[in-house]
Design brief:
This protein has about 325 residues and is of the alpha/beta class. Helices cover about 35% and strands about 25% of the residues. It contains eleven helices and 14 strands. It has helices at about 40-45, 60-70, 85-95, 115-130, 170-175, 190-200, 205-215, 225, 235-240, 260-270, 315-325; strands at about 5-10, 50-60, 75-80, 105-110, 110-115, 135-140, 150-155, 160-165, 180-190, 245-250, 255, 280, 295-300, 305-310. Strands 1, 2, 3, 4, 6, 7, 8, 9 and 10 form a nine-stranded mixed sheet that branches. It is globular, with a radius of gyration of 20 Å.
Length: about 325
């Protein structure tokens, strides 16, 4: 019997949300959302529409996903990466772990999704396309000219092209043109369909991932095999090259919460306080006042503070990269 399995990719570190997001506790496990983490919300959202859960995490934080799964009293199959090798390998591991005709619904673990009716409608459509050997991506109907997301140019359910994150002018052109969707980073396909396409376009990733999976013990991959796998995203490896790609245009409320600007907008939608000039304080218990500033975000943690102009939220990754180069403990 064909099963629909929910594959949760949970190995990211959330570098654009430093100092809240750390290697030891990435953004998907932070309880900013009514005492629930993004990972927990992701699991709960998909329980009614899938048969099993596969969690692909890394050696540093897989125990955090285990805590959530145990709390919810559900079973999951864990795939624990010894070292991150990007999404092509992570998804390949999940596909190797499944039966060839199983349908895999692949989602990140750090997105906010609301409007369950539209979400279930999109998933149901994608599963039917996947049964016909399509590799399905989910495109979100855009609500603004966002520069922090990639875009999908489409016609009906056919993908014309994938576009990188645009500048402001290009994003506005996409919205005006009317046939562009935000790229959600969610996918649906048969395990065998994805593996065949990966083998066709990236045989080295396929072979090395297969070898690493076959040598794994209880879902744990070893470092020697893992380091042989080229680090390439599933977008470059398969999505932008396969002729089997379909897109489901989706109208559910979605945000990848990939930057403090998207965190800011989400928190405001929940009633989180800002002052009369749009300034927000996150994590600071003492009274915090902003003078002469507008749309500024102050982020406080026990060992680091970040003061950020909202429109420069994408630049936080530069701070993370600089700290990473010197192996700073501020990333731990």
């Amino acid at each position: 019997m064909t099963k629909v399995k929910h594959v949760i990719l949970s190995g990211g570190v959330g570098s654009r949300l430093w100092p809240l997001s750390r290697k030891s506790k990435p953004k998907q496990y932070i309880k900013l959302f009514k005492e629930e983490s993004l990972f927990e919300l992701t699991v709960k959202r998909n329980i009614p529409i899938t048969d099993e859960i596969i969690v692909v995490g890394n050696i540093d934080n897989f125990h955090l996903s285990d805590e959530v799964v145990s709390k919810l009293n559900i079973e999951s199959n864990n795939i624990i990466e010894a070292t991150p090798r990007n999404t092509a390998a992570a998804i390949a591991f999940a596909a190797f772990s499944a039966d060839k005709d199983d349908i895999l619904l692949v989602t990140p673990s750090d997105h906010i999704i609301e409007n369950d009716k539209e979400y279930i409608k999109s998933i149901t459509t994608a599963v039917e396309l996947a049964k016909k050997d399509s590799i399905v991506t989910f495109g979100i109907v855009p609500t603004k000219s966002e520069t922090g997301y990639g875009y999908i140019e489409y016609s009906d359910d056919n993908v014309i092209s994938f576009r990188e994150k645009p500048n402001k002018n290009t994003a506005e052109q996409f919205i005006e043109q009317g046939n562009f969707l935000w790229n959600s980073g969610m996918f649906c396909f048969k395990a065998i369909t994805l593996l065949e396409e990966l083998k066709k376009f990236e045989p080295e990733i396929y072979n090395e991932s297969k070898n690493a999976w076959e040598n794994s013990v209880d879902g744990k991959l070893n470092i020697e095999d893992s380091e042989k796998i080229p680090s390439i995203s599933i977008d470059y490896a398969v999505m932008e090259r396969s002729k089997k790609i379909k897109v489901v245009s989706s109208s559910f409320d979605w945000s990848d919460l990939g930057s403090f600007e998207s965190i800011y907008e989400y928190l405001i939608s929940t009633g989180y306080p800002v002052d009369e000039n749009g300034n927000m304080s996150i994590g600071s218990k003492p009274y915090t006042a902003f003078v002469g500033l507008k749309n500024t975000i102050f982020i406080h943690t026990k060992d680091a503070n970040l003061i950020l102009a909202k429109e420069h939220a994408q630049d936080v990754k530069k701070i993370y990269s600089a700290l990473d180069k010197v192996s700073s403990k501020l990333l731990d």
